[in-house]
Every structure is written in structure tokens, then in C-alpha cells.
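Aim 2, interim progress: modelling of the coenzyme A-bound target.
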Amino acid sequence: MGVLKDTGQIEYSRGLEGVIAALSSISAIDGTQGKLIYRGIPIEALAKYSTYEETSYLLLYGELPTKENLEKFEREMRELRNLPEKVEECLKELPPDPHPMDILKVAVAHAALYDPDRQRACREGVMRKVIRIIAQIPTIIAYYHRTRSGKEVVPPDPELGHAANFLYMLHGKRPDEEEAKIFDVALILHAEHGLNASTFAAMVTASTLSDINSAIVSAIGALKGPLHGGANERVLKMLDEIGSADKAEEYVHNALKEKRRIMGFGHRVYKTYDPRARILKEYAEYLSNKYNDRKYIEIGEKIEEIMIRELGKKGIFPNVDFYSGIVYHFLGIPRDLFTPVFAMARSVGWAAHVCEYTQNNRIFRPRAYYIGPEYVEYNPIEQRR
Ligand SMILES: CC(C)(COP(=O)(O)OP(=O)(O)OC[C@H]1O[C@@H](n2cnc3c(N)ncnc32)[C@H](O)[C@@H]1OP(=O)(O)O)[C@@H](O)C(=O)NCCC(=O)NCCS
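Predicted structure of the complex, ligand included:
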């Protein structure tokens, strides 16, 4: 018999912490300085000067587009927004109560069946599929939401950019320029973040040489969880539960005593303030003042103060999910759509990593360190108790 148990030194990292599983030139995080770059460009510069479309091009193709290339890319994204008729019909038939992340998973898989490029495995074909997925996810989310609310769907407006068009399809009216810009920045900030759980899930699926659509569906499933993309939705639930800033101290104190996690804090890589949270906090503050409704921001800032005081020394600071919920709240995005909106933004990061990794592919196949018994006699069912 061969060796069932590993002998000698083993390297084991729970949750793969610190393990380098791929080479990548898409983004980098400095978790101690709180810095994030996409293809070398600081996130702050992209938030200030770029658009989601331009950032998507950068992530997918490795460099900022020329004016001509950007126009072509934007045109393609706008052309590919419509859903196949069968998918649109099916969205109307789906039950109104599952979590919208489950709907997104089903609809993305469904749309793939009608993808005219589904058989094209060449780079051009894969890119076309990728752009189609990025373009269709907002339409899926908005159509499902309108339908479950008993409203007519609002078809995409080819005159609007990606962010503005989503808000338009969701609310049935064009957003003002300022709100469209804020939402666009939120999408840029969520577009990419290295080998987080959902991106890794996409890469694992793609590394078997499965198709890009299956990879994206895997990623959506992983993003849904509350330790990942699902945290943003829970932040607002927590703010509601707390009710007012003066109750924050007691709430956090009790939560920490009971070893409960405060959603929107902590990160596997950042051991300081998440740079995305810093930008989103400014917008959350701005919108709270604009709408003269400071309840959430005041509770949020109080929680931040307490958490940094209590857990800052452990490297626990606000992450991207802490203030994004407040921003989305003021943009009129329903709470259970926060995570689907995260998926909408992150779809490009998933695709960029899948494309990059599969160019020099090796199937992911880690091992588990076996800690069970080495030999157990098979016990017939009649003798078991
Ligand atoms: C994101 C997250 C999963 C990272 O997990 P991780 O790298 O495995 O970190 P750990 O779970 O090992 O946490 C390290 C320590 O910080 C504590 N901690 C981490 N996040 C915390 C939080 N949000 N609230 C309270 N304590 C937290 C842990 O209890 C642990 O304490 P211990 O050393 O006394 O056991 C984790 O911080 C978390 O659950 N955050 C809340 C969910 C969230 O906001 N997710 C969105 C991420 S962008």
C-alpha cells in the first residue's frame, strides 16, 4: 500500500492565507499601506478620471484605450445589453422571493444558452462573450426587480453609459449626472480585487477548461456569501437594528463579547483602512448631507470609531462593504440588490483573471492533509449501533 498519510514537513495554510496561486498583472493590493492599483494605476486616479467602461477595458486588455478603442468598446457594450427574449420571459416567471443573487445565477446561466458566440473558443469569441456578460448583468438585475415590483421593464437606453443606464432601467427615469457619476465610481471601486474568493472560484472553474459563462456562475455563487459580497446588505440591516449613533457603543460591545462579526470590517489582505472604503465614505457623507438624512452615516462613523479603537491594533478597519450600502441607499437601490450590484461591477475582474490565467493554464488541484484514521474495518450494517 502507498503512503496514505503525509510524512515529514507539510505546508498548510488555512483558507489558503498567504498562498500565491497565480502570477498576475491585473491588480495589486498593498495591505499595510492601504493601496490598490489596477494595471499599475492607483484606484484614486481611476475613481477621479475614468469611467467603468474605460476601467473595464484597462482590466481586460491591459492598457488604457485610445479614444477610438474606447468608443468601439462602449458601442459594443451598449449593443450587447439586451437579453435574449426567452431569458426576459423567464425572469417574469421566476418566483419573487428568492435572493436576487440566486436569480442572477440562474439568469446568467440561462442567457449563456442563447449566446451566439458560445461555441467560439478563440480569443475574440471569448472577449465577445465576456463583454456580453458584463453588459447583460445590469439588465438582468433591473428587469427582475421591475418585474417583482409589478412594474413594466425599462429597456436599456443606448444613449446612456453603463452606470447611468442601470439606474435608468431600475427606476424608470434618468439619474442626474452627479448620481450617475457616484454610481460609476462605486462600480470602478468594485471592479477588481485580486484573488478574492469569487475570482478564485471563477479561476478554478476555468482552469478545467470549462467555459467563461460557467466560471462567472461559479463566481456569483461565491460572491453571495456574507463573508464576501453579501456583507454590504447586512451592514444596513445592522445600522437599522442599532437605530441611532448613541446605541452603537452598546451594540458593538455586545457583538464583540458574543464573538459576532461586525459586517463591513476586516479583510484578509488589508490590515489598515481599505482605500475603496475611504472614497465611498466621502460619497456616503456627501449624499447624507445632500438629502439631509444623516442617520446612517452617523451610526456608521460611530461604529468605525469604536471598531478602530477596539480592534484597530488587530488590523480590523472598514472594508469596501461598510460605506457602499449607505451610498446605494441614497441612490435608491433596494437592499437585496447590493450584492448583485457588486457582481455587476466585479464581472469584469472575474473575466480578466479567467482570461489571464487560462492563457498559461494549469488546473487547480490542491490537496487536503489527511488527519483521519489510517485503517478502519468495514462494519456490516446489521452490526452497527
Ligand atoms: C473579511 C473576513 C472574512 C476576513 O477574514 P480572515 O482573514 O479569515 O480573518 P479572521 O477571521 O482570521 O479574523 C482575524 C481576527 O479578527 C477578528 N475579526 C475579523 N473580522 C472581524 C469583524 N468584522 N468583526 C469582529 N471581529 C473581526 C476575528 O474574530 C479574529 O479574531 P481572533 O484573532 O481573536 O480570533 C473577516 O474580516 C470578516 O468576517 N468580516 C466581516 C464580513 C465582511 O465584511 N466581509 C466583506 C469583506 S470585503
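Residues 99 and 148 are 12 Å apart (CA to CA). The mean pLDDT is 95.
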